[in-house]
Amino acid sequence: MEDEVIKKFLYVNRKAPYGTIYALESLEVVLIGAAFDQDVSLAFIDDGVYQLKKDQKTSVDSGAGMKNFSKTYLALGDYDVNKIYVDKASLDERGLTADDLMELVYEDEDDDYKEKSSISIVNQEEIAQLMEQQDVVLSF
Fold first, then answer.
1. How many folded domains does the chain comprise?
2. What is the pLDDT of residue 63?
3. How many CA atoms lie within 13 A of 125 on its CB side?
4. Residue 102 belongs to a domain with what CATH number?
5. Using alpha carbons only, how large is the chain's radius of gyration in Å?
6. By percentage, how much of the chain surpasses pLDDT 90?
């Protein structure tokens, strides 16, 4: 049996969380991939930064027409998805800061299982470098 090569997957999230199916579909694909031991990273740019905004309020009766699924992001650490990159320029353009984002954490087994933040605020050059390092880049 050949050794399996684990590919690096970057999921780029560009859309607002509600109004289209892109954000929910991306999250579902990420969780499935992580369950199958893919090396998963996520990047949130443009209106995608709204996907990580804390205290999202929506209901099926609202204009969004979708149930709030934002709490599902809190499970990413349990799936070893701890490389989450948020574009600083996209936050700035929307009047948001890191404090406006959900606290997504993972337990670092190499550091006595301390909880650490999964989110890194990065610039556009760092996002471009990250994309170059991946085997597969999927944009939602």
1. 1
2. 53
3. 0
4. 3.40.1260.10
5. 15
6. 76
pTM: 0.89
Domain that holds residue 81: 8-139
46 occurs within a structural domain: yes
Let me know how long the chain is.
140
Summarize pLDDT for 30-67 with one digit per residue, the tens: 999 999 889 999 999 999 999 999 988 776 554 556 78
Closest C-alpha among 34, 109, 20, 112 to residue 75: 34
* Ramachandran category for residue 32: left, alpha or beta (phi over 0 → left; psi -120 to 50 → alpha): alpha
Contacts 24+ apart (CB under 8 A), 57-61: 58/18
For residue 84, pLDDT beyond 50: yes
Q: Return the closest-CA partner of residue 17 out of 69, 89, 59.
A: 69
**Residue at token pair 């337990």:** 107
Please report where in the chains the tokens 């699924």 appear, as a residue. Answer: 69
Please indicate, yes or no, if residue 1 is contained in any of the structural domains.
no
Is the pLDDT confidence value at 137 over 70?
yes
